[in-house]
Specification:
The chain is about 30% helix and about 25% strand. By secondary structure, it is of the alpha/beta class. Helix 1 (about 15-35) packs across helix 2 and helix 9 packs across helix 10. It is globular, with a radius of gyration of 22 Å. It starts with 14 loop residues before the first helix and ends in a 5-residue tail after the last strand.
């Protein structure tokens, strides 16, 4: 069965039909936010704009942005548009840099969310007869439960493993023989590492498709995952502040960026520094407005994720390019702007290096310096002497300088030296003085 055999009618709707639907849902969402959420009423009034001023889709740019700080200032439930007796689920971010951001769901929201993830799985070639191994974390994090409910909605058999205990993950994949893996890209590689450590052939396992997300990754890493596990590795995008996973998904038949489900989310790309709306095709920060959320409609949410809007291919909805990184994750080292994904892509040009790396930022005196820690491939373990490792490090430094324009110090390490993440990979350690 091809992924395109069972499209929902809206996935093949004309652009005019889709735009008309978006306009009606945008207008309804703006009115709901203004009438039911004091924060939005105050913010709209301060900006001198009212939902009645919305007469065409481009008018959305007249309304103020929503930021993570807005959500934190209204912690925990100040952004809810319905009474608590209509809330059936509450999720929250980790809150590692402040108060967590909280999101609520009605019964209708859960049904919509589940159907969007089921749509995403179908776009990835999934079907009701599949077994789905969910290695995203469960709990307040939206990944595990979101993907779980979506796979069940599709009719698939869910294996709710959660994150961590990689040895157990490998055993269950060998015993239960799932068809689809849901995990972060870095954790998919950690599973492949563990399979090989146990003497198993990752390429010979039952997995057919990986639906991977929750962190930026590169085409280099996609190639690594596909080569080592023998699957189609597909990108998936979502964020808890908007709904969780299920915002955009890559289609199996094209693998050319993520189709954004425009019947439920209205996208904009803005210039991060000025907030100016950019035309399709230009890179900037993704801004999303929910179109169907009941419990917590969100108006022009600044995701901080950097991408661009692309024309439709596999569906009539527009696509977003693979997320380059986050505007607030950008490092500025001696005047050079750099994202971890850029370093990852460069390191992938050297076949002796594994896709396991860590960036350490230091300030030994007055200027910032970047150390790049990267492992050699497992099959090279113990075969390279100190001189060869040093030469490999110098080669990596040259590649970073040539392609990123940044002078960095590379330290090449033996396999399994860098700690593996059981969820989102930690790519940057800031060792600069706090004062």
């Amino acid at each position: 069965m091809k992924a395109t055999e069972k499209l929902e009618p809206i996935e093949a709707a004309s652009r005019d039909e889709l735009l008309a639907l978006q306009f009606d849902r945008l207008k309804r969402t703006l009115h709901a936010a203004y009438e039911r959420i004091p924060h939005y009423r105050k913010k709209f009034d301060s900006a001198g704009v009212h939902p009645s001023d919305f007469n065409r889709a481009s008018d959305i740019a007249r309304f103020p942005f929503t930021t993570k700080d807005d959500l934190r200032q209204n912690y925990p439930f100040g952004m809810f548009a319905v009474p608590m007796d209509e809330i059936v689920r509450i999720h929250a971010s980790s809150g590692t840099t402040g108060k967590p951001t909280v999101v609520g769901y009605t019964k209708g929201d859960i049904a919509t969310w589940s159907s969007l993830i089921a749509r995403s799985i179908r776009a990835g070639g999934g079907r009701a007869s599949d077994k789905v191994h969910v290695a995203y974390g469960y709990g307040l994090f939206t990944g595990g439960l979101g993907m779980h409910y979506g796979a069940e909605h599709l009719g698939a058999a869910v294996i709710p493993v959660g994150g961590g205990n990689t040895e157990r993950q490998v055993q269950l994949i060998a015993d239960f023989k799932p068809d689809i893996l849901m995990a972060t890209p870095s954790y998919a590689l950690a599973i492949a590492d563990e399979m090989e450590r146990q003497g198993l052939s990752a390429r010979d396992c039952s997995l057919r498709v990986g639906i991977l997300g929750a962190e930026p990754w590169t085409e280099t890493m996609r190639g690594e995952i596909e080569r080592r596990i023998g699957i189609d590795a597909l990108d998936h995008y979502g964020l808890s502040e908007v709904t969780g996973p299920g915002v955009a998904a890559e289609c199996l038949e094209t693998k050319d960026g993520l189709t954004l489900w425009e019947d439920h989310f209205f996208p904009e790309i803005i210039e991060p520094d000025t907030g100016r709306v950019l035309p399709d095709g230009e890179a900037g920060e993704l801004v999303l407005t929910t179109l169907t959320k009941e419990a917590m409609p969100v108006i022009r949410y600044r995701t901080r994720d950097l991408t661009r809007l692309l024309p439709p291919t596999a569906r009539t909805m527009r696509r977003i390019e693979r997320i380059k990184g986050r505007s607030d994750d950008m490092l500025i080292i001696r005047g050079v702007n750099v994202f971890p994904s850029q370093i990852e892509a460069v390191l992938g040009r050297e076949p002796q290096l594994a896709p396991h790396y860590l960036l350490e930022v230091r300030r030994p005196q007055s200027l910032d310096e970047l150390d790049v820690l990267v492992e050699i491939r497992p099959e090279l373990s113990g075969t390279l002497n100190a001189e060869a490792m040093s030469a490999l490090a110098r080669k990596a430094e040259h590649l970073i300088k040539a392609y990123v324009g940044l002078t960095a110090t590379v330290r090449v390490l033996e396999p399994a030296t860098i700690e593996r993440s059981q969820g989102k990979a930690k790519r940057v350690v800031d060792r600069r003085p706090k004062n």
